[in-house]
Amino acid sequence: MNAIDAGRVADLHLHTYFSDGTYSPEELVAQAECQALHALALTDHDTVEGCLPTAKACQTAGIEFIAGTELTAEQDGHEIHILGYLIDLQNPKFLKEIGKFQSVRQNRIREIVQRLNELNVPLQAEEVFALANCRAPGRPHVARALVQAGLVGSLDEAFERFLKKNRPAWVPKFKMSASEATDLIHQSGGVAVMAHPGLNRSDEVIPAMVESGLDGIECFHTKHSTAVSEHYLQIAERFHLLVTGGSDCHGLSKGRPLIGSVRLPYEHVEKLHARAAERKAAAVRHFSA
Ligand code: AMP
Ligand code: ZN
Ligand code: FE
Ligand code: FE
Which terminus in the chain has less CB density within 10 A, N or C? Predict the structure, then answer.
């Protein structure tokens, strides 16, 4: 790290209202300015729709923007979230594939609502879609719609009574495999990073994911204690993985905004760029052949 980089920090895990966050791109970037972030990455679930407006707002604010997404995948029965960074936003295969997962999400909302109706909870899918107003709706939108309709008292109550895994309105989500997610990110010139490994504590899947080409691991996350971050820094070293970190801010949907609460030293962003350059060169060689 050189002297100029000493104070530069990034937050590489952020959501907007293009998935289940509450902030618009402009609001998110305004918060990033307050936090004096040098760089930020947008990682909305299964979509990159928010990337262009966020890039524009970042340009105005003088903040470096990193295009990203968070894909939900599966490895050996474990749900794994995979962050894709510095992907080509125009890549047709990438857009087509994530489009399928957006449809999966929309159909799942209909199924969740159907189960709620069977439980005599009179919510309509259209209410959820209107509230979500995005292509990648999820359970948090159902929870908000339930609160808005006065059918539950809080978001927590919605998850506890209905939406959590194995609760009566829970519907499993069809997921791609971790290696499919990694390949999809690579073929669009991006870098694949395992998100918040400390949340799932499924370390046993890491070697297989490394074998599939995983590039990095999110060592720093709001829900990682110092000891947990340290543990994953050691894993990163053992498997030669890039180190990333981010707050996983969803705006105000989870209390106070988390943006900037994880401050990743900029040297890690430089390494991310270097890997992306390698991945882009490889994508041109392998995937356009
Ligand atoms: P989905 O992608 O539709 O399965 O929804 C996942 C989102 O729901 C993530 O952003 C989680 O943070 C949120 N979530 C999952 N479980 C809970 C819970 N028990 N309480 C509040 N939010 C939750
Ligand atoms: Zn989310
Ligand atoms: Fe996640
Ligand atoms: Fe996230």
Answer: C
- Residues 191-201 as b or e (16 or more Cβ within 10 Å = b): bbbbbbbbbee
Q: Considering the entire predicted model, what is its pTM?
A: 0.94
Measure the CA–CA gap between 179 and 191, rounded to whole angstroms.
13
Ligand 1: which atom is nearest the Cα of residue 160? 19
Please name the residue whose Cα sits nearest to atom 14 of ligand 1: 140
Confidence of residue 252 (pLDDT cuts 50, 70, 90): confident
pLDDT digits (tens, 9 = 90+) for 104-117: 999 999 999 999 99
Query: Ligand 1: residues within 6 Å at CB?
Result: 20, 45, 138-140, 155, 159, 164, 173
Question: pLDDT digits over 113-146, tens only?
Answer: 999 999 999 999 999 999 999 999 999 999 999 9
Give, using CA atoms, the residue closest to atom 16 of ligand 1. Answer: 164
CA 267 to ligand 2 center in whole angstroms: 26
